[in-house]
Amino acid sequence: MSYQHILSKIPKIDRLLQDQSIQLFLTQYPRARVVNVLRSELQSLRNEILQNESRFESSPELLEYPTTLKRLVTALDLQLRPRASRCINATGVVLHTGLGRAPLSSAAQDALQQVAGGFALVEYEIESGARGDRHTIVEEMLIQLTGAEAAAVVNNNAAATFLILNTLSQGKQCVVSRGELVTIGGSFRIPDIMRESGALMVEVGTTNKTNIRDYAQAINEYTGLLLKVHTSNYRIMGFHEDVPLEQLVELGVQYQLPVLHDLGSGSLVDLSRYGLVKEPLVRESIDAGADIVSFSGDKLIGGPQSGIIVGKKEFIARIKANQVARTLRCGKLTFAALEATLQLFFDEAKLLKQHRVMQMLTQSETKIRNRANKLKRMLAKIVERNGLVDVQRSSAEVGGGSLATVSLPTSVVALYLQNLHVDELAKQLRLSQPSIIPRVQQGQVFLDMFTVQDDELHFIVNALRNIIDKLENTADE
Fold this sequence. Notes:
Structural class: alpha/beta
């Protein structure tokens, strides 16, 4: 079979656009986008032929029209679906960074709906008709919730840390314990953020032991800031000593230096009241005398991605006035969702009922196991002779750099399908609409019911039904 003859097997764009399978995409997406994906995928096929002509000569079925069409439909489905689309979090990680961290409360969703389709009061004073300050949308609530004098909001806590350092310590030394030079995720590193902000990092102490004398000995006429970082995503055990915030504040007062407490995840309620490990409260940092405290709005706060800065008026005013602040500011959607989220913290009943993160963290083991057993019964009817489905005990986690040492008891639905490798099963679940994100463990696919909601079970059932139908159809061909 000649090379040209092999290439002639590749279908033309015009023919493909007449196919019913392709026309389905034309009813949902612009023609130009559909054509672009088809051309790109067909070019990839040509390149494969060029690189391995003998493979296609020995296996001509690889270029049969139904096979090529199936490949193209898969490519269209994957590339045209919205990238920021809904998914089912079956990983057991509550604040999963890759999955958008905190799911928003119904109140926050309603607030987004209200402002998304129209104009919104962001920087406008309705009483005077003059331009206002967007931070005031949530500032008063943050003052009440934390006890701080003032507050500001930027687009995430990394931005908050950067902005504070750039404002208060640019060209000056910032003293920090070596044991608190944390890395969050794969890219946020305190030393890097400090360098980019213009602050001059001065490390004191050792990885596992730092005392107040270490800080005091590092202070000189070039010092601009004392920094304490809450190690929210790891713990040092054993021979360990760090400096309590109160002591660092006393040192700051002695040398007239501001103290920044970077809490990372941050918390507005005492989680130990609900059977969880206590996470440092923002109010406790303010009460201890910290001049500035920064934390995330999309972790334990349960709001949209944001970085919250609270503290003394004089420092917050300087931070707001920094020209860099404009590059890090949030828009109407963030403020609308954050405002609605913060409102919940003034009413414990509403907080536990509507706050999605609090709902998950405080749910009972019995409720989780009942959800797992319900899904098992639903899936057993579909799996039948094709595999196995079982409920097992496991552990979930908070994630997002929060409550690092906390292991949350959970129940998982374990899946195994004959004639389908676990990695391929996980992939097929991810490719479902909406995507279902499981975890692969012990040679099985686990669907963790800690992070799956009751109203999401039918999506999993439909996805598995489609996967098994494809398996059976392939076996019949």
